[in-house]
Amino acid sequence: MGIEIGQDAFSCARNYILGLACQTSLDISTIPATPTSQRFEAQNFITSDVTIVNPMDIVYTAGIEIDLLAAFEVEFGATFLAEISPCQ
Fold this sequence. Notes:
By secondary structure, the chain is mainly β. The chain has one domain (3-84). It contains one helix and eight strands. Strands 1, 2, 3, 5, 6 and 8 form a six-stranded parallel sheet that branches. The protein has a two-stranded parallel ribbon with strand order 4-7. Helix 1 (8-18) links the parallel strand 1 and strand 2. The longest helix has 11 residues, at 8-18. The protein is globular.
């Protein structure tokens, strides 16, 4: 079971900042424009089809798999990192 990121992105970012448990999986279809530096973590899976725009700095961390769908894009000047590692 995953969550749809939109309004929930703020609670996901808050959970990361506060050190709360990460979600089992994330389906990221939108990323808020602020803050420009954001980290999304899932215990198992992340799926995403967003466009990461300049000057965003985005990190996806999942324990098993990160699936970047056909519509996923990182614009010139933006930074994106995908890493497979356990939740922090």
